[in-house]
Fold Gamma-glutamylcyclotransferase.
Amino acid sequence: LWIFGYGSLVWRPGFEFTSRKVGYIRGYSRRFWQGDTFHRGSEQAVSAGRDAGACTWGVAYEVCGEQQVAASLQYLNVREAVLGGYDTKLVSFHPRDKDAGEPIQALVYIATPQNPSYLGPASEEDIAAQIIVSSGCAGHNVEYLLRLADFMRYFCPQVEDKHLFSIEEALFALLPCLCHSEKAPEEV
């Protein structure tokens, strides 16, 4: 079984796997339009929604053997479906490696506008402002955004994820407002 991740699964899958590949799925776009007050304490979490012309980059994990498959599905069904409000879909995953051959069928967790946690579009500035003040049991939402942006820059440098990078830029624009101090910083 292959499982595709496009959010925190790219750096913290939380389950055992046999191998992994960087690549993309077609027909979906990554958006911070999903509510999640459990994992990151944010009203804005990452989701992928139908978008005919889009590609979403991430990591596909191969899980093998009955025990590994069962454990990963049990874990992800709680993490993504029960707590996150995502639906599961089978999609064609296209590995970045050109020698990988044909696309691989992979399971992905997708947020739909019909689920109760779906929030829909918001401006990048509003999303960034929510991210800055949100944290939950899985950590601070700033970490989530920055790790995802770093993944895209390092593993997919040819891809421009405008939505992701615009939120990151809006977050950096807000940080000086939060870090302002009357006292000059000490020399290092």
